[in-house]
Amino acid sequence: MEHLRKVLAIDPEHPQANANLGVALARRGSVDEALPLLEKAAELAPLDVKNLINLAGALTEKGRPAEAVRRCRQALVIDPEYHDAHNTLAVALVTTGELDEAIPHFEKALAADPESVEIHYNLGRVLLTRKRADQAILHLEKASGSQRPAVLATLADAYAEAGRFPDAVLAGRRALSLPWPPNERQAAESLRARIATWESRSVAGR
After folding, report:
1. What is the pTM of this model?
2. Of 19, 59, 78, 155, whose Cβ has the fewest other Cβ atoms within 10 Å?
3. CATH number at residue 31
């Protein structure tokens, strides 16, 4: 980052330096500082789809998903097969509530990157929200190897939605056995309550 700032001090119109510093700042969580740099990079190199997608991701994170959708669509006009554009567009569409439109874009991204835990997880969550539990389970099971509590908790919910309560209990317990981030403790307690409900339904179903 220090070297990139030096480059921009010499040449503030350098598109790749703007893009690289913007991405580095965004990954560090400094989205407010990153956005002007990413916008500048997209302005200086408007046909660079990576610049557009980096900007779109930051816009979604900043709570401006409608603008992110527009940038992703720009990228897909330039390169209709760019899988990161499909994934970033799908995430932005989910944020704007356009879940059904997001699904084919997740699927397109997954076709290009079939081992992506993040895409399987995101698609699984959307399918579960649309009450397509059996399909959601297929994707969430593929993502569950990441051993992330949120993934396992969502898989547990999908099992429960499909009426597979013993599986839901097992997945839920696995999730609770993992360390949860401090800001997700309430979600962990909510999961604990759901597990108790699933256990009672498991017993009732025997």
Report:
1. 0.86
2. 78
3. 1.25.40.10
